[in-house]
Amino acid sequence: MNRLAYSVLWHFGLPLIGLRLLYRARKQPEYLQHLAERFGAAPLAGKCPRIWLHAVSVGETRAAQPLVKALLTQYPQHDILLTHMTPTGRATGAELFATEPRVHSCYLPYDFPWAQRRFLQRARPQLGIVMETEVWPNLMHAAEVAGVPMLLVNARLSARSARGYQRLGQLARATFGRFTKVLAQTADDAERLRACGARTTEVCGNMKFDVELNPALLARGTEFKQTAGGRPIILAASTREGEEAPLLAAFARHAPAQALLVLVPRHPQRFDEVATLVAQHGLSLQRRSSGEAIAPATRVWLGDSMGEMVAYYRMADVAIIGGSWQPLGGQNLIEACAAGTPVLVGPHTFNFTEAATQAIAAGAARRCPDLDQALATCAQLLADATARQAMGKAGQAFAEANRGATRRTLQAIGQVLPT
Q: What architecture is the 33-205+404-416 domain classified under in CATH?
């Protein structure tokens, strides 16, 4: 496929974009807000030079936090434009940088060539930084024409995703080749990115290790634990569709009668759906959003809030990481390790292959073949305080040992955009 054919497909798909926004807005009305930004209406650049950083959704935005803070310090004359594709990503950015007047937010436009040109003409960044794997051919072409150097940072690429890009042939090679630098999480990521066309690659590590745990959230987690009255607590963190039903069934079979399940779906639009699932399994439910103390008879506490995952990790005795029990690649386990919480992951962790492998080798995490075995393992760990303590300490040591990616990334940025 060439870029012309790719662009034609985008224009044929324009009606589907409208339908998709309407569909998503049924559960998240925010999808119908700021529509002009999705077609290039970025906030106009002011007098200050601007660095633009794209973080597609929640995970990438949280991972970008230490880098944004470092950029604000290293480049005090610059503003930061933070772009997203999802309302939850945008809300996360607003929460993390609410007190930073130099950080501005908007949506990145859909990959129409005219929309990307308009975006860059309005934003006028001196440098573009893309987090992880969000790579758009027309955006990269427009940046090259506009003379905007582009960096792909904290870059990761699974073997499956690499095969998908390679099927696009020259379009993928030209797109990856337009990055001035690609800063990969691991050597394997760097190799796959080079095979897809990246020209200059460096291995800088994973910036998720550099995210500082919010002390206020840690204190809130301690309060949550106290309201549970000393009950053993299992956390199911960032669960995805298709995981909750077998999780609830396994919890009913294996968990001690006094255990509390804290269930936190990955996507807020699914909170009500998951609450219905809990009721269907005959388990008594309370919701975090009610603000009420956890009752002794409650078996499931639904974490229907945003931005409190650190608090949930702190209150938990053991954490089951969502996204790894279906072939979805798994969610981030690093935050749980840093909080000192023992971690269980499923068979599908290709989004965090190296982190999961290293955490397991360090004794911070265990891999289970399915949720039935995971809940049985939870029951064993709840009965063994020594094992839980050892896993928690190993997790904190593992997280600390892998810090430093933000510093290395900032050094590489400095070679492209000197202070």
A: 3-Layer(aba) Sandwich (3.40)
Query: Which regions of the chain carry the CATH code 3.40.50.2000?
Result: 215-401
Give phi and psi for 357, each to the nearest 5. Answer: -60, -45
Bin 225: left if φ > 0, else alpha if -120 < ψ < 50, else beta: alpha
For residue range 294-309, list pLDDT tens digits in order: 999 999 999 999 889 9
Closest CA to 363 of 398, 330, 313: 398
Distance (Å) of CA 98 to CA 39, 92, 101, 105, 286: 25, 10, 8, 11, 30
Q: Which fold has domain 215-401?
A: Rossmann fold (3.40.50)
CATH 3.40.50.11720 residue ranges for the chain: 33-205+404-416
Cα-Cα-Cα-Cα dihedral of 334, 404, 80, 150, to 10°? -100
Which spans in 260-404 are helix H? 271-280, 309-315, 334-338, 353-362, 371-382, 385-401
pTM of the model: 0.89
Cα distance between residue 228 and residue 233, in whole Å: 8
Annotation marks residue 202 as catalytic: no
**255 and 281 Cβ atoms separated by less than 8 Å:** no
Using one digit for the tens of pLDDT, what is the confidence trace for 26-80? 989 999 999 999 999 999 998 999 999 999 999 899 999 999 999 999 999 999 9
Instruction: Given the residues 30, 37, 60, 223, select the one marked as catalytic.
Output: 60
The tokens 């990856």 sit on which residue?
A: 176
CB 363 within 8 A of CB 391: yes
CA distance 139 to 125: 13
CA–CA dist 263, 303 (Å, integer):
6
